[in-house]
From TrEMBL:
This is Iron-containing redox enzyme family protein. SMART domains: Haem_oxygenase_2. InterPro entries: Haem_Oase-like_multi-hlx. SUPFAM superfamilies: Heme oxygenase-like. It holds the Pfam family Haem_oxygenas_2. It comes from Streptomyces calidiresistens. The lineage of its organism: Bacteria, Bacillati, Actinomycetota, Actinomycetes, Kitasatosporales. Residues 1-37 are annotated as: Disordered. It comes from the Bacteria.
């Protein structure tokens, strides 16, 4: 069944208007996609949450039933989770900043997370084969399939632009979810992960922050570069990919899975970035479009070694019981990325859009 976007006017009223780190207004709340999203948005507003008891309220039985019946990879659940998680990043216009820690919202988020995480664990076998998981990341898929290969060989400009829209939900906050691992690591693992993050954040240069480079890429492609500008048109798998890293990042008990996710991202990026740079050059894209991917070809090749030999190795030497979690993070990343890839390729091979709605033209200023 195709995803549906429901309309809901943004609540207006007094209160502070959140801003992004660049000082521009925070994004507006997205349109919901079903009852779970409606339940989340019903808890948001311009005023702080009302004082209550110290204990988190239980989720209503009827809503618990809705969550249990929901598609764990569907648009309603992942839009709802996305909104919950974004309160920990940049927030939303007309939503009071204190809603980030509203006990009622946190209880609902926990129930949504449990549905998602339970499904992932059921769909992925228990696995402690770290070597195999890492090797599989660089194994060529049957028939040379894959989105970056498709775009490199025969993709068209409109398909490349759609790909960039899918990726914008993460790349405009690239590396932010993984920063939650820093206080949860120690020793060599911590030092190496910080070194990788330092590169992701431009090595001390604001104009080299990877999120800024991606914003420049979007503008070069004639797309909006505003944070979450396209959240209403990306399908569920694009949200699930980003929700996964937020889920891992916000739970200390999942720090091993977060490291596995980060390793998977850094190891798979250089070959795919090389293909995407080649695709953009073939399409005659502006240099600022190509720059984002050429930067990743060089930087992430080094990051791969740091993640393998310093972060993962040191973490598991200190906490060997996290091996299964690291493997789970790697496998879950590949599982959800494959779902997103299928959505794009199945649509494009039928000459159809992979998005839920038409694209708006660019015009938003570049945002770091």
């Amino acid at each position: 069944m195709p995803e549906q976007i429901l309309t809901r006017p943004v609540t207006s009223g007094a209160g502070r208007r959140p801003t992004t780190p660049e000082g521009v207004p925070a994004p507006s709340l997205p349109r919901t996609r079903g009852p779970l999203g409606e339940a989340v948005l019903a808890l948001l507003g311009p005023e702080p949450p009302a004082p209550g008891s110290d204990g988190a309220p239980a989720v209503a039985p009827e809503l618990t039933a809705e969550i249990a019946a929901a598609d764990p990879y569907g648009g309603d659940l992942h839009l709802a989770l996305h909104v919950c998680y974004e309160l920990h990043y940049r927030g939303f216009a007309d939503v009071h900043p204190d809603r980030e820690w509203d006990p009622a919202l946190l209880s609902l988020r926990a129930a949504l997370e449990e549905r998602f995480l339970t499904a992932l664990r059921a769909d992925l076998p228990d696995d402690t084969d770290l070597r195999g998981a890492l090797e599989d990341l660089l194994t060529e898929p049957p028939g040379g399939a894959g989105v970056s290969r498709y775009l490199s060989r025969s993709g068209e400009w409109w398909q490349m632009r759609e790909y960039l829209v899918h990726r914008s939900i993460y790349h405009l906050k690239e590396a932010d979810p993984h920063a939650w691992a820093i206080p949860r690591l120690t020793g060599r693992a911590k030092a190496a992960l910080v070194a990788v993050e330092f590169d992701e954040y431009g090595g001390g240069r604001a104009d080299r922050i990877h999120a800024h480079l991606f914003a420049e890429l979007l503008e070069g492609a004639g797309l909006e570069s505003g944070y979450l500008a396209y959240v209403d048109v990306v399908p569920a798998p694009a949200l699930a990919v980003v929700n996964l890293m937020s889920l891992f990042g916000l739970h200390r008990t999942l720090r091993g899975a977060l490291v596995g996710h980060f390793a998977a991202a850094e190891i798979t990026t250089p070959p795919s970035a090389r293909r995407l740079a080649r695709a953009l050059q073939r399409m005659g894209a502006p240099e600022r479009c190509v720059r984002f991917y050429t930067e990743h070809v060089e930087a992430d090749a080094v990051h791969e070694q740091l993640m393998r030999h310093d972060v993962i190795a040191d973490l598991l030497e200190r906490e060997p019981e996290l091996r299964a979690d690291v493997v789970f993070g790697i496998r879950a990343t590949g599982f959800l990325e494959a779902k997103l890839g299928r959505v794009m390729l199945e649509a494009w091979t039928r000459d159809r859009s992979s998005l839920l709605g038409p694209l708006r033209a660019g015009g938003t200023r570049v945002a770091a």
